Amino acid sequence: MILDKKTLRKQILTEIDALPAGYITESDKGIFSRMTDLPAFRKARVIFSYYSIEREPDTVRIIEYALSRGKTVTLPVCFKGGEMEARAISDVGELTRAGFGLLEPLSSERVILPEELDFIIVPALTYDLDGYRLGRGGGYYDRYLSRTGAFTAGAARQRLLRDTLPRDAHDISVDCVVTERKARLLGGASREGRIPG
User: Fold this and answer.
1) Bridge-partner residues for 112, per DSSP?
2) Once rounded to an integer, what is the mean pLDDT over residues 21-43?
3) Average pLDDT over residues 148-167
4) CA distances from 119 to 24, 41, 145, 177 (A)
5) C-alpha radius of gyration, the chain, whole number
6) What tens digit of pLDDT does each residue of 114-125 get?
7) 65-81 b/e with 16+ CB inside 10 Å = b?
8) Which residues contact 189 (CB under 8 A, 6 or more apart)?
9) For the whole model, what pTM was predicted?
10) Are 173 and 124 in contact (CB under 8 A)?
11) Backbone angles phi, psi at 50, to 5 degrees
12) Which of 28, 114, 142, 173 could bridge to 148 as Cys pair (CB 3.0-4.6 Å)?
């Protein structure tokens, strides 16, 4: 039986809280290694990532690594009405705390258009085996992903993966789900212009 999204969010948040600290640390190491080893990541010139907080899969190390490799790194700034834009940073110290405890590059004026992005790390509470995500319910990423041809990767903890998640008509799957165990490339995404993995 597939639960509705609201019920499932509560269930997965409870599971996240119960994950042992040692597992979180090891999972973050594995996700970093597998994400940065993806050919699409290595080839990408412009990367869009969220800045992880609390027990989310660690993207901060990935962001710092990408900056050290000379890649352009962008992070989201969210607006009312579900709109979002990617702004470039040169250092994680530039970020400012915004709504919901998120860190955003509010002082950056370098807006990168969706079509200029090569690689996007998409946040979620978890993913299923088809690359569909369960987010926090704001709809920001589904709107944004419909406007880009970038290669998309979801960072997920293996213990939280689901066989199938509830999905709506507007939901967009990612090209690859990355856990600490493996990077699972998926063939179902329909966006064009991706950097091949």
Assistant:
1) 86
2) 97
3) 94
4) 24, 6, 11, 13
5) 16
6) 999 999 999 999
7) ebbeeebbbbbbbbeee
8) 131, 152, 172, 173, 174, 175
9) 0.89
10) no
11) -85, 160
12) 114
CB atoms within 10 A of CB 176: 25
Q: Is the pLDDT of residue 75 over 70?
A: yes
Average pLDDT, the chain: 88
**Coil vs helix vs strand at 178:** strand
147, two tokens: 């406007």
Residue in this structure with the two tokens 């990423």, named with its chain if needed = 141
Q: How far apart are CA 38 and CA 185, in angstroms?
A: 10
Please check whether residue 155 is in contact with residue 35, taking contact to mean a CB–CB distance below 8 angstroms: yes
pLDDT at 78: 83
Helix (H, G, I), strand (E, B) or coil at 120: strand
Q: 28: closest CA among 54, 4, 1, 2? A: 54
| Chain centre distance of CA 119 | 10
pLDDT in tens, 46-73: 999 999 989 999 999 999 999 999 999 9
Ranking 38-42, 95-99, 173-177 by mean pLDDT, the lowest is 95-99
DSSP assignment of 137-153, as one string? S--HHHHHHTT---EEE
> Which amino acid belongs to residue 27?
S
DSSP state of 2: P
d(CA 153, CA 70) in angstroms, rounded, equals 20
Compute the distance between CA of residue 35 and CA of residue 42 in angstroms, rounded to an integer.
Answer: 9
Strand 96-97 and strand 46-48: the pairing is: unpaired
